[in-house]
């Protein structure tokens, strides 16, 4: 509800009472008109101030939202970089293990096969 509704209604009621008496109406008309103009001007000023307050609140909300978005993005980037570093470490570890296994396999292929010599049997 508009806070100036009561003032506007009171001024309109007072003006109606004054207009019922023609002599009073002649003298009170300029006063009633001035009161109505003042009420309208006050209502306009209240709307302007309300719009300014709403704009300030919207700006504050937008700034806070932008900061939160930036913080969330920074946290997500840090988590992604950490995951990438861990993945690289695991890949390097797997590559090292694969290289070691390949080296062992190559060593087995190139080493001479040791055959056991048949020992003369004691049966003789």
Keywords:
124 residues, mainly alpha, 2 helices, 85% helix
Brief account:
The protein is built from 2 helices and no strands.
Largest sheet descriptor? none
Mean model confidence by pLDDT: 82
Number of helices: 2
Low-confidence stretches: none
Shape assignment: rod-shaped
Percent of residues in helices comes to over 70%
Task: Give helix and strand order, one letter per element, not per position.
Answer: HH
SSE class: mainly alpha
Distance between the termini: 124 Å
Percent of residues in beta strands: under 5%
What is the rounded Rg? 47 Å
Q: How many DSSP E strands?
A: 0
Ordered list of secondary-structure elements with their pairings:
Layout lengths: L4 H16 L1 H89 L14
Helix pairs in contact: 1-2
Description:
- The chain is mainly α and 124 residues long.
- It has a domain at 5-90.
- Helix content is 85%, strand content 0%.
- The longest helix has 89 residues, at 22-110.
- The mean pLDDT is 82.
